[in-house]
Amino acid sequence: MAWINFDPITRRRIARFRNIKRGYYSLIILLAAMALSIFAPYLAESRALLVVHRGDVFFPTFSYVTMATFEQTPPPGWQADDVEADYLRLQSEWHLQRTLFDQESKQAGADIAALEQKYPNRKSFVLMPLIPWDPYSSDFWYNEVLNDLQALLKSGEREQAVTLARQGRLDELADLIQSGEIENVLKDTKRAPVGDLASLARAGTMKSVAHLAKVAPNAPDAQRAHYLGTDAQGRDVASRLLYGFRISIFFSLFLVFSGQVIGTFIGSMQGYFGGAFDIASQRIIEILVSIPFLYVVIILAALMVPSFWMLLGIMAIFQWVDITFYMRTEMYREKTKEYCLAAKSYGASHLRIIFRHLLPNCLTPLVTFTPFLVVGAIFSLTALDYLGYGLPAPTPSWGELIDQALDAENRDKLWLTFAPFTAITITLVLVTFIGESVREAFDPKQYAKYE
Asked: Averaged over 322-336, what is the pLDDT?
């Protein structure tokens, strides 16, 4: 940072902070996590990052591409020009075409020209994000795929059933359908008690489909890219954790920054000027302290749908109060020191004395309490979301995930419990380590002492 000229004391403080390894590395990890959360749409999103289709290149993250572009079949009642492309389905379809082309082209006497016409998209590909799910889309494939396969078998469309099974990488089931053996399997009441594919999966006699025919929440499944499973609405937990982290950390930083700036300014004015200004402002602060914050949020949430900025504004009204007590006390003490009296004797203005001379020596409580206020802000937002008075559904939220995990029917779904609690714990530990290290490194009393 050679373009920034720090004074010698500040440089020593920064060097001391870097020598406190737990705080320094915690800061690096937290900043990296924040950077990743900023680019969350490129890490966790249902839209593809890149699509190459018959020589044409598309960037769906930046443009809207319909199903008609890739000749996809839209849902019943919709037109292909009206629906955005289903990129996960597109990826599986083109992957299957490449696989079948490779298999059939290796057979003796294979007509390559006919195969190229049969599989025109074998050279096309889809590049999906690391987590190919946005935090709002639901995945009910686990329950729907067997119903679709059962309907195709019932109507005698065996070839389409085989294709659908292979797209879902259910190769064992696809082989049974292709050979016709699936009829004997479904007639065996020990393997399929009700005689359909859903009962075959629930019975657990075929391991390759035992994870199907289950309603959400579903356990972690790398094949479907649900690395932390799904929640009760079938939404990807990892994606909601990432977006929830972005909301939580930036909400807390905005809240603490605004509260610290307002509280530091008012507290400094109180301590420096004293008198009538101090008495009047203290009475206002006492009124704010007596107002129950949670009741205010509940009342406003009942009157209107809370938004990010509305919650931030409400909490900011109360956030600045605590720091004023500490800054007021520090200013009362510091303004009697000789360096302050010397500055007054040289004709320095009140604002210069406060912000140039007094405030740098009153930063100990500000630096000390800031990380704990960040922790408190994260807890507050999480608690409000858990109680149902925070951000409206379906906003990604750690508190909403905890609420789902504590439901009676989900208490055996351990991934719903471990994921949000682990994320909260790691975040709060990192912030606490940073706060302890900053307090130790930037404490002005280590470098100067005024009598």
From this structure: 86
